[in-house]
DNA sequence: ATCACTAGACAGATTATCTGACGAACTGTC
DNA sequence: GACAGTTCGTCAGATAATCTGTCTAGTGAT
């Protein structure tokens, strides 16, 4: 049995992941807005995370992001309208569209990665370089354990 | 400049927090469904996280959860309909309603905390006890740093 | 040629959030 | 007391981000 007081029991790993994650997200998407991309919302990262330099099919993006084609289409439509993506029919498959980042879209991806690195550096300043390195290492280990168990 | 390859640059702290968090959430809410509470969805945790043994006002819950009164009212309504909460007028303030957990609601909170602790134990099994302890410690430090900076 | 499968679109629903406006109730000051 | 300003919760309406189910067109293997 767990006899610790509720306030302590409530400090779950989930909460300890969620709070920093939300803080990070505020920093990164705030920074993105400040850099001239206020239209990019957190959900859009599902696209930027999984699109490669040669673009990808809608279905491939959806599968990698673990969501339905319809949901991914919704996100892609928004980004295409804002000029971050451009889609063209696949010459090898008449059913498929290939979605690619535009130059503007590549700038967003770059800004996203920059801002993330900056935010991580600030974390290291706050909690110490060693501790931040251990944090990253432990998370990487955990993510690897998850990923082999149920590949994305 | 950051000259690491894109695949490595993409392994941001955000991603390293998000993936475990999502995995954890699946485990916990899956477990909750298995324990007979399939109607509890992740968003509802905003209520369980912030309600105390003596209940709370809607407005207080909303503020603690960092959302609008309207959004919190939506979540509370759902939980009240499902019998996890019961709300009564505040005898000291005619405007206010006090929302309290029912016995069923308390069982949910208990299950939530149990499942979280179990999930954390499984993480320790996977990545090692020492590493898991360091992970928790680093996250606690980070959360504390966030919380003093912008108290919730 | 046909037939099973796949890519993406369309229609419609659900969940979880928001903003703005509002009436009722409380609180402090005159 | 009366009045002004604040706070509590609700209503109406909108938006974001997801889902299921159905459909057409295209592919590919027999």
From TrEMBL, chains A, B:
Residues 10-144 form the HTH marR-type domain. Coiled coil: none annotated. GO terms for biological process: response to stress. The keyword Transcription regulation applies. The keyword Transcription regulation applies. GO terms for molecular function: DNA binding; DNA-binding transcription factor activity. It holds the Pfam family MarR_2. Keywords: DNA-binding, Transcription, Transcription regulation. This is MarR family transcriptional regulator.
